[in-house]
Each structure stands twice: as C-alpha cells, then as structure tokens.
C-alpha cells in the first residue's frame, strides 16, 4: 500500500486523485491533505472521508475554522504549511497546487526523497535547474496528460534514439480564429474549453495556449530535450495526448479519451498501471483524428515561451508570473483577451533587455516572480 499526500486537494487534480484513490483503498492510504483554504468545507469533507493524519491550510483564518471542524486531526497552518506537509514521510506526494506557489512544496518533496507526482508544471518551469538538480533519477513522475504521454511513449526506445517530441494541443475554444477575431473574447467564452474540465487559471491558459508554452518548457526540463526539438501540433479531439518521434522515422503516440484520471492514476502508481483507471478508446465506432499546425500569429504564447526558455535563468519565472497577473486582470475585466500575451511579452522583453546575473536560487526566482507581477500590473494600468 502506498501512502499518499495530496497538495491542492480541493482543486481539479486533487479531487480527481481522491476519486482514483477512493476506488482502490487496498492500494493507497492518504496520510495528508493540503489546500489554500478557499474551499475549506470541501477540505473538511475530504478529511472526514479519508482520515488523514494531518491537513495543511495556507490561509490562517480558514485553518482555524478547519481545526474546529476536525478535532483530533493535526492542522498545519500558514503559507509554509504545504511545504511542511510535503517534507513528512510518505511514498508519493501529488503536487496539484496551481501556480508558482507550488515551487517550495516541490523542492520540499524532492529534498525528502519522496516520489513527486507533479501536476504543478509552474514549479518546474520557474525553478528550472533548482528542481531538476534536486531530483534523483526517476523521482519526478509527470501527471500532466501530455508529459505522462511522453513518459509512456519514451519507453519504446533509448534517449539517444529520440529525434523530437510532438506536443499536442486541443487548440482551445478559439481554434481557427484570427488574431483580430480574438480581441473581443470574454472570460465566459474563454472558460468554455471544448474537451477538458479544469480550474480557472489552467482553462484560461489553455484558451491563450499559454498553458502549451508552459508545457513546452516543462517537457524540455523533464526529458532533457532541446526546446527546438519539441513541436506543438493542434489535435482538436484530444485523444492523442502527445507523441515521440525516433530517429528511424517511427512515431509512438499515447492515446486515450480525455480523462485526467488516467495520468493521475499512473502518477500515483508509476511505473505500474492500475486496471480500469479510465475507459479506453472505442474501436467499434468510426472516428476521425485530425492534426494541424499551430497558428503562431494568433497564438504567440508558445514561441514566447520557447524564447524565455532559451534565455533561461529567471526569465521563465517572469513569463509565468506575468501571465498569472494577466489572467486575473482579464477575468476581472481589466484586460482584453489578446492583452494577456501582449503584456507578458512586454514584461519578458524588459527582463531580456535587463538580464539578471544573480545565481539561480529560490530567492532569485521568487524575486523575479515578484518583480514580474508588479511590472505586469503596471503595463495593465497603462493600457
């Protein structure tokens, strides 16, 4: 039986992970839960269902309320609560926290020597070498559907035989629209993803393809592949979750209906597969899978990410932080849809024009994150 800690338990990844675990009580025991506190009632319900030894809540007021509801359960409170919980003994930590807040829990997990099932791509993107250098071989298991697909397909050959990674994208709700047609997009329209049900930030990121830019950076770091050897291809049906092309001309694809329970289950049990984690493809009905090139003019976020990744250092952290501010501003009605990537590009460009020579560290990454948030807010006000 594997002992599991779930960080971000009340979010989309966390709640689906609990579904996977609850169906297999003989395989998994949840020993800790962590959440921000905005869904405190759900956290309490999860704790009553799973009986963990502790829960962690970053919001102090919410933590006090949770503690009152869960007598006999240890409650870790404050901004470092998730990191403190991640450092405790267990077999697997699933990091489903959204955004840059996942960095320190990721590092705490790796320092503890625990397997990290990583759904928080931002911590790897902004941490870069800090994260990869802290990880033992095989310690990080990808939970994003695309990176799980890469990991599965890479079993087909040696690393030296890989020519490139093919990162698939659904294209989001605005696939086929021109740059001009995207100007008037509303938050409600951006939240209407055609195939995936996700949290607010990830869904907006998917509509701008900023999410695909983050995934490109994550893939380069996870699998040691040059960013120019990663190609993004639009696949609206979201059945082929990504592909690996080998140098003999063979391409290996991982395919399944869009259901995050499959990569979550694999992340928890890696390298073993859990039976019936999700339904397979239906080969008895006619179907069509289509692929098309990405329109980089309408959706420039991917190439902007590639540029940030090549620059390295704290530039990817700036890319991510500026985007998080822009997503909030867009949802609040303070920034138009196209302005999201435009503001991020402006902030990244400013960072590139004034490169930071400071050695990469948690403090330098967090400083760059803080600077980018201020810079993005200023650009938004100017618009």
Order of helices and strands: EHEHEHEHEHEHHEHEHHHEEEHEHHHH
**Rough shape?**
globular
Task: Strand order, main sheet: write it out.
Answer: 4-3-2-1-5-6-7
**What is the CA–CA distance across the termini?**
54 Å
Beta-strand content estimate: 15-25%
Q: Bin the helical content.
A: 40-55%
Number of domains: 3
Average pLDDT, to the nearest integer?
A: 94
**What are the low-pLDDT stretches, counting only 5+ consecutive residues below 50?**
none
Number of strands: 12
What is the SS-derived class?
Answer: alpha/beta
Task: Describe this structure as you would to a colleague.
- With 383 residues, this protein is of the alpha/beta class.
- The chain has 3 domains: 2-142, NAD(P)-binding Rossmann-like Domain (Rossmann fold), CATH 3.40.50.720; 145-257 and 268-297, no CATH class; 312-383, RNA polymerase sigma factor, region 2, helix turn helix motif (Rna Polymerase Sigma Factor, Chain: A, Orthogonal Bundle).
- Helices cover 45% and strands 16% of the residues.
- It is built from 16 helices and 12 strands.
- The chain has helices at residues 12-22, 40-50, 60-69, 81-86, 103-111, 121-127, 129-134, 145-153, 187-190, 200-208, 210-223, 261-269, 301-311, 315-331, 337-353, 362-382, and strands at 2-7, 28-35, 54-57, 74-77, 92-95, 115-118, 140-142, 162-169, 230-234, 240-246, 251-255, 292-293.
- The strands form 2 sheets. The chain has a 7-stranded parallel sheet, sandwiched between helices.
- Strand 5 (92-95), helix 5 and strand 6 form a beta-alpha-beta unit.
- The longest helix is centred in the last third of the chain and has 21 residues, at 362-382.
- The termini are far apart.
